[in-house]
Amino acid sequence: MIHLSMETLVGLREAGMEPGAAAAREHLDACALCRAELERLHQRVARLKALPPLRPARDRWPAVRDRVRAERRRQRARFAGLSGLAAAASVALALAVSTLRQPEAGLTPAKIEQTMARSQVLESAIDRIDPESRVLDGRTAGIAQELEDRIARVDRELEMVELTEPQSRDSDLLRLWRERVGLLDALVDVHATRASYVGL
Predict the structure, then answer these.
(1) Is the separation of the CB atoms in 112 and 177 below 8 Å?
(2) Where are the domains of the chain?
(3) Residue 173: pLDDT band with limits 50, 70, 90
(4) For the segment 27-72, what is each residue's pLDDT rounded down to a tens digit?
(5) Which of 56, 71, 92, 111 has its CA 20 to 30 A from that of 175?
(6) Distance CA 145, CA 139 (A)
(7) Element containing residue 52 per DSSP (H, E)
C-alpha cells in the first residue's frame, strides 16, 4: 500500500477541497499510519501556534557603532604614542650619531703616534710568542683567525683613510688605530693564554 505524502497530508489538514482529496480521505480512513502522521502534523502545528510571537530584536547598530568608534580611538592613541616614541628614538639616535662624528677634543697627531706605537709593541709581543710554531686547538685557531681577519680589515680601512680629506682624517685615523690596538691586544691574549695553558 502506498501511503500519503506529507504534502497530501498538509493539503487534507487545510480547509478546502483539492482535486484528489476525496481519494486521499478514503485512504486516510483505511490507513492507521497515515492517520497517526496526520495527528502528529496537527500537534506540531498546535505547538508552533502556541509559541510566543517573535518581535524583532532592538536595533543593535548604535552599540556596535560606538564600540567600533571607541576601538578606533584606542588604536589611534596607541599609534600616536608609538609614533611619538619612534620620533624620540630617532632624535636620540641622531644625537648619538652626531656626537660620535664630532672630532675628539684636543685631537693631535701625538695621540695617533702614541696609538701607533702601542700597536707596534703588541705586534712585537705576538712575534715573541711566535704563534706560527705552536699547535693550537680548533677553537683557539678560529678565534685567532677571526682577530687577524679583523685586523686586516682595519688595515685596509687605514689605507683608505689616508686618501681622504685632511679635516676628517685625524679622527678616523685615531679611531681605526685604537680599534687595531684593541684587536692586537685580544690576539696577544689568545696566543699568550694558550701558550701558558699548554705550559709552553
Answers:
(1) yes
(2) 6-50, 62-102, 109-198
(3) confident
(4) 888 889 888 888 888 888 888 888 888 776 677 778 888 899 999 8
(5) 92
(6) 10
(7) none
